[in-house]
């Protein structure tokens, strides 16, 4: 039987796009919107668009913070996308005073417009894996281009978890990994064949 794939429903985000990608890959995604839903899944995807503060508030309103942290702490398969990557860290300049999940140490910071950068960072950009042998990069192009839309990015306290870097004014951590946990700032569901390859690798590991 195929693994059951859960998709975090925190009240926002591009859930349908992610569900469509799963369906294209012959997986039926299940929306996860309560603690009880975690018992019904084997893999967890956390997609996200919107603000850090609103996302965290909705996770707490739905009592999803602790089940997500338990999932991560058990090293179960997890794929965080965009905002679902950012909320893994302790806090964000976007929402001062709001505590993220804090699974990883570090903060989410804003791009510096003083360098003449257009904000948000929007469009295709190169993702440079730090370890090409990592399973999520299997079968992807080299160089690899993925689609981004964001004004903020995480700065991990532990550089050893950084799995790829991308340049926008300066290099930033475009993904991190630890065990079966992977999260990236890019949108695989908007990255055509390259994004499909990432999701397929996540499902087949």
**Percent of residues in β-strands:** 25-35%
User: Which structural class fits the helix and strand makeup?
Assistant: alpha/beta
Helix content: 10-25%
The rough form would be described as: globular
Work out the radius of gyration: 16 Å
SS summary, helix count = 5
* Mean of pLDDT: 94
User: Which CATH top level class fits?
Assistant: Alpha Beta
Number of structurally distinct domains: 1
SSE order, as H and E? Answer: EHEEHHEHEEEEEEEEH
Identify low-pLDDT runs: none
What order do the strands of the largest sheet run in, or round the barrel if closed?
A: 2-1-3-4-12-11-10-7-8
Structure description:
With 205 residues, this protein is of the alpha/beta class. It has a single domain, classed as Class I glutamine amidotransferase (GATase) domain (Rossmann fold, 3-Layer(aba) Sandwich), CATH 3.40.50. It contains 5 helices and 12 strands. Strands 2-1-3-4-12-11-10-7-8 form a 9-stranded mixed sheet. A 3-stranded mixed sheet has the order 5-6-9, with no helix packed on it. Strand 10 (162-168) and strand 11 (170-178) form a beta hairpin. The longest helix is centred in the C-terminal third of the chain and has 13 residues, at 192-204. The chain starts with a strand and ends with a helix. The mean pLDDT is 94.
Brief characterization of the structure:
The chain has 205 residues and is an alpha/beta fold. It has helices spanning 15-24, 52-61, 65-73, 83-86, 192-204, and strands at residues 5-8, 29-32, 43-46, 78-81, 91-92, 106-110, 121-129, 144-150, 152-156, 162-168, 170-178, 181-184. The protein has a nine-stranded mixed beta sheet. A three-stranded mixed beta sheet has the order 5-6-9, with no helix packed on it.
């Amino acid at each position: 039987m195929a693994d059951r794939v859960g998709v975090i429903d925190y009240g926002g985000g591009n859930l349908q796009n992610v569900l469509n990608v799963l369906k294209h890959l012959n997986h039926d995604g299940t929306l996860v919107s309560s603690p009880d839903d975690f018992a019904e899944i084997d893999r967890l995807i956390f997609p996200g668009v919107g603000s850090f503060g609103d996302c965290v508030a909705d996770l707490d309103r739905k009592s999803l913070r602790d089940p997500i942290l338990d999932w991560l702490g058990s090293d179960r398969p997890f794929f965080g996308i965009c905002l679902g990557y950012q909320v893994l860290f302790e806090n964000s300049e976007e929402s001062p005073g709001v505590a993220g999940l804090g699974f990883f140490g570090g903060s989410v910071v804003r791009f510096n417009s003083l360098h003449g950068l257009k904000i948000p960072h929007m469009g295709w950009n190169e993702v440079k894996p730090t370890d090409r042998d990592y399973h999520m990069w299997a079968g992807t192009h080299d160089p690899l281009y993925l689609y981004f839309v964001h004004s903020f990015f995480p700065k991990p306290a532990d550089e050893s978890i950084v799995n790829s870097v991308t340049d926008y004014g300066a290099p930033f951590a475009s993904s991190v990994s630890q065990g079966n946990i992977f999260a990236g700032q890019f949108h695989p569901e908007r990255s055509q064949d390259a994004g499909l390859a990432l999701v397929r690798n996540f499902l087949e590991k």
